[in-house]
């Protein structure tokens, strides 16, 4: 049985998954998992990229110790938008900034004095947001210009990590599509944007198609890890693109949801949709493994609950999924709502206090107990996903009947059921490790073991179990949704 290494690095943790394929079914084994969080230093948030690389090498060593000496290849997918800068000699110049860096908001505001959001969306099809690579670059230009002056090459996170393994400088298409610097409908950099902002487009490494081989692991890596050369493959470098490739979607009336720290909701489209409504409603167009596009909206996901857990742990309150489910059931439904995507929840000092203040300011009951806060978060998330799907139907003129959910958040069965209730759609949850499975699919296709995405999805369907959730309590959810829209202080409503 052939095997590949799929590195799936998220904004809260990273993992190495071993994917085996016998010609008919795939099998997944988690080899190693490690935490990954931004590091706050001197008013900036950074990624400890060298620690990530070190953990990846450790993961390979663990895999070898488990008897997996022979693998065909490796692939890397990560979150979007972030990047590292290399010098002329190929040295990493600094730890990459995190997209949550607070300076990016001001950087975006200043950049939009040179080019408008309307122009940016028309050129790129990507939603204007402070996390985007384009605004991070402008922020660096304003605050740390000598860094850009010394830089020769920009590599996006999965490609930066691949470079450390194989010394190849290129940026894969799907991860490049998150930057707001790619020409809409083309795998080409939109250099006019950078020129308007005074940033050199010479920084941008060439764009490579997914499902291609980047190169082999370096001799120094092979010697250190005591391995034979391993092919490093350009999989869909953006974790959402990998996740969507793994969802067993079999019709054109389905929505995908990639659920983790963020939840990305959308539908596949052949070409970017750049009409005014799409921009007004905050939709974006990003690349797929097939070289097409996903019309989607980026939404807050489990970040809200993750940050509440940080506060509870700081207060000495231990929690887990089982306890949270019990507390959720004990709390009354539809007690209070928040807009999960309000900027105040992006990176607050205390998420619980921020949620309570929001409810107070909107004249709602204030959630006090753990259960009330958990229910407030999960019901609000489900309501917002309904809002997104309603607008997807208007943009695509399709009646969407089914939601395919993948990612770690599907372990939260309450969220899956609430999403079914709020949207009045069947929810098909699984596979859990969708990003790593999609990562492996990219490798199997590049290696010639699978023909295409369609065949790969059929293999996923036969290889992994899914759970189905049917909507219930429709009338009460409809009236609650009306309250949600009323309470939520969002101009898009």
Automatic annotation (TrEMBL):
GO terms for biological process: rhamnose catabolic process. InterPro entries: ATPase_NBD, FGGY_C, FGGY_Carb_Kinase, FGGY_N, Rhamnulokinase. The keyword Transport does not apply. CDD domains: ASKHA_NBD_FGGY_RhaB-like. Residues 6-244 form the Carbohydrate kinase FGGY N-terminal domain. Belongs to the FGGY kinase family. This is Rhamnulokinase. It comes from Gracilibacillus orientalis.
């Amino acid at each position: 049985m052939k095997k590949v290494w799929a590195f799936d690095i998220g904004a809260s943790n990273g993992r190495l998954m071993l994917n085996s394929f016998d010609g008919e079914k795939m099998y997944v084994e988690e080899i190693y998992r490690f935490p990954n969080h931004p590091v706050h230093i001197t008013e900036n948030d950074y990624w400890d990229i060298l620690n990530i690389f070190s953990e990846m090498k450790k993961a390979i060593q663990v895999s070898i110790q488990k008897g997996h000496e022979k693998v065909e290849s490796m692939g890397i997918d990560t979150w979007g938008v972030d990047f590292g800068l290399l010098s002329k000699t190929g040295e990493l110049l600094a730890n990459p900034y995190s997209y949550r860096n607070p300076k990016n908001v001001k950087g975006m505001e200043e950049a939009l004095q040179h080019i408008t959001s309307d122009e940016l969306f028309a050129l790129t099809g990507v939603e204007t947001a402070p996390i985007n690579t384009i605004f991070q670059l402008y922020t660096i230009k304003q605050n740390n210009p000598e860094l850009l002056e010394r830089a020769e090459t920009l590599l996006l996170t999965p490609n930066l990590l691949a470079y450390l393994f194989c010394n190849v400088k290129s940026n894969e298409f799907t991860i490049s599509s998150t930057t707001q610097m790619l020409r809409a409908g083309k795998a080409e950099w939109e250099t006019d944007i950078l020129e308007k902002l005074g940033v050199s487009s010479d920084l941008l490494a060439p764009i490579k198609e997914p499902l291609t081989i980047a190169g082999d692991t370096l001799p120094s890596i092979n010697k250190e890890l005591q391995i034979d050369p391993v092919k490093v493959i350009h999989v869909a470098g953006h974790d959402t693109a990998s996740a969507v490739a793994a969802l067993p979607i079999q019709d054109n009336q389905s929505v995908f949801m990639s659920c983790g720290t963020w939840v990305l909701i959308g539908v596949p489209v052949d070409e970017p949709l750049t009409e005014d409504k799409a921009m007004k409603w905050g939709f974006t167009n990003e690349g797929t493994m097939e070289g097409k596009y996903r019309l989607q909206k980026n939404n807050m996901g489990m970040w809200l609950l993750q940050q509440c857990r940080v506060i509870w742990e700081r207060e000495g309150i231990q929690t887990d999924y089982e306890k949270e489910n019990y507390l959720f059931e004990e709390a009354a439904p539809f007690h209070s709502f928040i807009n999960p995507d309000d900027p105040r929840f992006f990176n607050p000092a205390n998420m619980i206090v921020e949620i309570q203040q929001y409810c107070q300011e909107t004249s709602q009951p204030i959630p006090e107990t753990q259960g009330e806060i958990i229910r407030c978060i999960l019901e609000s998330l489900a309501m917002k996903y309904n809002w997104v799907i309603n607008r997807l139907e208007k943009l695509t003129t399709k009646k969407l009947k089914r939601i395919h959910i993948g990612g770690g958040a599907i372990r939260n069965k309450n969220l899956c059921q609430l999403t079914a209730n709020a949207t009045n759609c069947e929810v098909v949850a699984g596979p859990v490790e969708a990003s790593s499975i999609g990562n492996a699919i990219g490798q199997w296709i590049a290696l010639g073991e699978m023909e295409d995405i369609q065949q790969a999805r059929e293999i996923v369907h036969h290889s992994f179990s899914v759970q189905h959730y049917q909507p219930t309590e429709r009338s009460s959810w409809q009236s609650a949704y009306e309250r949600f829209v009323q309470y939520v202080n969002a101009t898009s409503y």
